[in-house]
Amino acid sequence: MREVSLRIESWPLREVFRISRAACTDITVVVVEISEGIFLGRGECRPYPRYGETPQGVAAEIEALIPLLKMGMERDELNTMLPPGAARNAIDCALWDLVAKRTGQSVWQLAGLPPPLPLTTAYTLSVDSPDNLAIAANKQAWRPLLKLKLAGSEDLERVAAVRANAPNARLIVDANEAWTMADYHRLAPELARLGVELLEQPFPSDADQCLANLPKPLPICADESCHASSSLNKLLGLYDTVNIKLDKTGGLTEALRMKALAEGLGFKVMVGCMVATSLAMAPAMLLAQGSTYVDIDGPLLLAKDRQPGLSYQGSQAYPPEAGLWG
């Protein structure tokens, strides 16, 4: 018989993290642990209010499945019991980890993937004034890839400040659904001129059909409009790139399937994350192999990370050790 436990944890951030619709000084995650004798599998998720999730609600979803998990429920059955989302992600990743521990094989071996390699992750600059972003960009100018959060008003000034103070960094931007049509027509050509190579989710997810008829001076990436594999067909002709996150897909199992389908449909892939600890990033490291963009900087934004955690050397993230996950 398995043992199953879960807990809600709070982790402080290095500094305030702002996007177009919210700001936070700490993050809350839910951790699931599933054990069989001496073998322990762990998974972490970040409940996200934008998708109607709360830590308590996600914990309740997981608690409802504990009897089945104790009786031996595996990933294939899990995916019929819960919809895509944070709760399923935590359980799915814990089950992957448990099987890896029990069999003595790495998750990448179990999944039939090549050995994972170190990856260069984006480093995120949150919404701030142009003056403050100039200072932040100057401090991070040595990083190869910066991701700037936008909010509509003053966005051109924000991007110009970052570009001026980090002239050699590649730059992608994320509007988190904050733009209007007028913002797009005014800003998109200017972003292209400033060397921005990707614009993420300019419009609310229920308004993105307008992208079908808009000029695209730079590639557009879906995030809030993109969840599991079932999202992909409706994004054809609208977006060039999709941002796959484990907390949206409901775990590594569906994320791997979605990535293969997305690439088959001609999308480029970004593998992103919610801000969370290394336990949440570890499975994303496997998913991110070979992706066009990697954005798994969550632990770099925390005041402290889980130990053992992923190894980061600058913007280079290294595959997880077994003591962390997988």
Strand content: 15-25%
The rounded distance between the terminal residues' Cα atoms is: 22 Å
- How many helix segments? 11
Please state the average pLDDT score. Answer: 97
Q: Return the structural class.
A: alpha/beta
Over the alpha carbons, how many angstroms does the gyration radius reach?
Answer: 19 Å
Shape: globular
Describe this structure in words.
With 326 residues, this protein is an alpha/beta fold. The chain has two domains: 3-107, Enolase-like, N-terminal domain (Enolase-like, domain 1, 2-Layer Sandwich); 119-317, Enolase-like C-terminal domain (TIM Barrel). Helices cover 34% and strands 23% of the residues. Strands 5-6-7-8-9-10-11-12 form an eight-stranded parallel sheet. Helix 5 links the parallel strand 5 and strand 6 (145-149). Helix 1 packs across helix 3 (86-103). The chain is globular, with a radius of gyration of 19 Å.
Helices and strands in order, then pairings?
Blueprint: E1 3-19, E2 22-36, E3 39-45, H1 55-70, H2 75-81, H3 86-103, H4 107-110, E4 119-120, E5 123-125, H5 130-139, E6 145-149, H6 155-165, E7 170-174, H7 181-193, E8 196-200, E9 220-222, H8 232-235, E10 241-244, H9 246-249, H10 252-264, E11 268-271, H11 278-287, E12 293-294, E13 312-313, E14 316-317
